[in-house]
Amino acid sequence: MKNNHIDNDNAEQNHAAYVSMKGVGHKFDPRPDAPMVVENIDLDIHRHEFVAVVGPSGCGKSTLLRMVAGLLIPSNGQVSVFNRPVTEPRDDVGIVFQKANLLPWLTVRKNVLFPLKHKYGRYSANDEKRANELLDMAGLTQFADKMPDELSGGMQQRVGIVRALLLNPDILLMDEPFSALDALTREQIGFDLLDIWKEHPKTVLFITHSITEAVLLSDRILVMSKRPGSVLDLIDVDLPRPRSSETIKSTRFAELTDTIRGYIYEPHVPA
Amino acid sequence: MNPTYLPKSWLAQQVNRFAPALFFIGLVLLWELVCSVGEVPNYILPSPSAIFSAFFDVEMSRWLTHLWATLRVALMGFALSIAIAIPLSIGMMRSELMNRVLYPALIVIQSTPVVAVAPLIIVLLGTDDPSRVLITCLITFFPLVVSTTTGMLETPPEMIELSQSLRAPRYRETWQIRIPYAIPHIFSGLRVSITLAIIGAVVAEFVAAEEGLGYFIQFSTSFFKIPQAFAGLIFLSIISLLMFKSIQWIQMWLFPWSLPKKK
């Protein structure tokens, strides 16, 4: 049985590599001459660290996330969580998908409870209480009995986050979770995510194609090259927390985004 | 300027609203006119008024007997076809081998004209309900299999990943994700199938029956009671339409989320 609730205050564990990728590479086509999607990724994520991954479209960011989730087994190298190789999906991982991925035939509350219903076939009154608390935390109480399509995109994605938190995972994997939202909603939900993260510390792997979002939210940023995706740089985001809209105005914020932009956009080649 | 923004008179609004009904009434009036002006004999093309009076020439209890016979066969065939099609679709979705083996067989069954097979089925199973139900089932189950399978296979990969990330048993993936996702598809299949079920029942009655609307139409025609045959035909269309609507009502009642959103 995997231990989902490791002592929170064990400093040594917190600073050890919690999620570790060593020489991770993947290709979907098993033939030897087939092209790699991601290549040679080395990354150690500490416990309760917020790591963002940015890179151009198709660089294999989502593939990387799926390998950490145990949904894909890497062709090369190894992903391990707490020194155990990941060979299948783990109980202590929650996934937030792009576009919420809610089930349209269930109410908001039942969507949040779906992981229990789906995994064990039932849930208790206590679980329902927990779902209500999580919904309350995300400011969704009044929408609990609505159907997903009655909610705005931002609200739907909040439900998606709450659903991922239901089983109290230690690792939260987020696959471009806010990419379908408009800019204003996107910024607000980002700050809300940081509040949740502060209250319920998780190890977060956050895939995004928004450079500002990555800088605003994370502790470190993995910058990936275009396909086959490999590590271009690993940037420490030394901005103070709590972050706010003031953070965006700081010069350091601008420097960091510029550095990353330099990696993502290739130098202009005159025609 | 866009003409839709111009205010319309009350009359124009009402005409627009009842356009489908008005078109239908116009068609019936035209039919009546052609029959009376052209002096078309009733045994060639009966006028709507002749059909209407023929309807009352037949006792209500006789209508109900025929109606029930057709409806009974249609609904039994339809139910049997649901009972076969849904499990079959799940099997074909789950097993690639089953899909490869069964799909060609289904195509063969579907492309064989049921009308041509019907007499053979009667020879095989006799002239009672079982053969009529089987004929109805044969004509209805293909659209159901296709729509159910398509719906389940179109389930977004992220929903399947959600299931896999929870390491849920596969029957729950089918039952809690794929089947609900396929509901809108299943219902469009059911709408097609229910009208086919009426056709199937009538085809079966044409081949061998002592009651039913199909039998009644054939019987009336052979005695040159053409207005009566037309009355039966209209009865049949109404039943078919009602069945089609019932499927929509059931969907609205049980799965309101599965209906297309109104703008």
TrEMBL record, chain A:
Highest taxon of source: Bacteria
Entry keywords, A to Z: ATP-binding, Nucleotide-binding, Transport
Family: Belongs to the ABC transporter superfamily.
GO molecular function: ATP binding; ATP hydrolysis activity
Name of the protein in its database record: ABC transporter ATP-binding protein
Lineage: Bacteria, Pseudomonadati, Pseudomonadota, Gammaproteobacteria, Oceanospirillales
Domain ABC transporter: 19-251
CDD domains the UniProt entry points to: ABC_NrtD_SsuB_transporters
Signal peptide (from-to): none
UniProtKB/TrEMBL annotation, chain B:
CDD domains: TM_PBP2
Domain of life: Bacteria
Keywords in alphabetical order: Cell membrane, Membrane, Transmembrane, Transmembrane helix, Transport
GO biological process: transmembrane transport
Pfam family, one: BPD_transp_1
InterPro entries: MetI-like, MetI-like_sf
ABC transmembrane type-1 domain ranges (all copies): 67-247
Major location (coarse): membrane
Gene Ontology annotations for the cellular component aspect, listed alphabetically: plasma membrane
Family from the record: Belongs to the binding-protein-dependent transport system permease family.
Protein name per Swiss-Prot or TrEMBL: ABC transporter permease
Organism encoding this protein: Marinomonas algarum
